[in-house]
Amino acid sequence: MNKCIERLYNGIIKENPTFVLMLGMCPTLAVTTSATNGLGMGLSTTAVLVMSNAMISLLRKMIPDKVRIPAFIVVVASFVTVVQLLLQAYVPAVYNALGIYIPLIVVNCIILGRAEAYASKNDVLSSAFDGLGMGLGFTLSLTCIGLVRELIGGGAVFGHVVIPEDFHISIFVMAPGAFFVLASLQALQNKIKHPVKKEEQGDAAMACGGCCAGCMDTVCAENHKKIQQAKKMSSK
């Protein structure tokens, strides 16, 4: 059970497919004009992820390595068709809003990536929870982006208008707004996840100010190494 909880945590927080891995950008930027669209797309993808991961894990020993990718696509396409027909029958408004992006779930890199990286190598239960975690992380990300875009661009929250029309910034419900909101939310997430460390003696010499989690500056890394060595020598 701990392994299952870990898969949920990884998908939602640690390896969030949108804000951390930057996967599935096409539907993320295209359908998040409202929170409802983001939620609908996220839940549809989650359903496909859970079912396809479980099925691929169940069949992993029977699928030859040479045809594993085509086999994965067939499995995913089958579940996408089921989800598409269910949406068309029971939630036609969401089906019409998402349009072509529902069948395009078949080639979503999140689904094929989890099938190849995890489901094809692990047991059914863990694979299902891996799909659930990734799906919930994707759903949360799309809903947050859609919520911000809908609120600022249309003055509404899940279709309920809360800001007068005079204060709407319509660019946020257009294509450029998707990039603005995605970048802002990702920056906020990175700030929370990797807060900049308070400057200590010598940290000012580093380009990252002491926060080396995502620093790719070789000079900064070298300075950090020298400072740490100097601290060890002084402690002795």
**Number of DSSP helices?**
9
The geometry reads as flat
Distance from N terminus to C terminus (CA atoms, Å) equals 45 Å
Sheet with the most strands: spatial strand order: 1-2
Using only C-alpha atoms, the radius of gyration works out to: 22 Å
Largest sheet geometry: 2 strands, antiparallel
In words, what does this structure look like?
With 236 residues, the chain is mainly α. It is built from nine helices and two strands; from the N terminus they run αααααααββαα. The protein has helices spanning 2-14, 25-30, 35-58, 68-90, 92-98, 109-119, 124-154, 175-193, 218-235; strands at residues 156-157, 160-161. Strands 1-2 form a two-stranded antiparallel ribbon. Helix 3 runs antiparallel to helix 7 (124-154), helix 4 (68-90) packs across helix 5 and helix 4 (68-90) packs across helix 6. The longest helix has 31 residues, at 124-154. Mean pLDDT is 84; it is low at 197-206.
Keywords:
flat, two-stranded antiparallel sheet, 64% helix, 2% strand, mainly alpha, 236 residues
Topology overview:
Elements: H1 2-14, H2 25-30, H3 35-58, H4 68-90, H5 92-98, H6 109-119, H7 124-154, E1 156-157, E2 160-161, H8 175-193, H9 218-235
Antiparallel strand pairs: 1-2
Helix pairs in contact: 1-7, 3-4, 3-6, 3-7, 4-5, 4-6, 6-7, 7-8
Brief digest:
The protein is mainly alpha-helical and 236 residues long. It has helices spanning 2-14, 25-30, 35-58, 68-90, 92-98, 109-119, 124-154, 175-193, 218-235, and strands at 156-157, 160-161. Helix 4 crosses helix 5 (92-98), helix 4 (68-90) crosses helix 6 and helix 7 crosses helix 8.
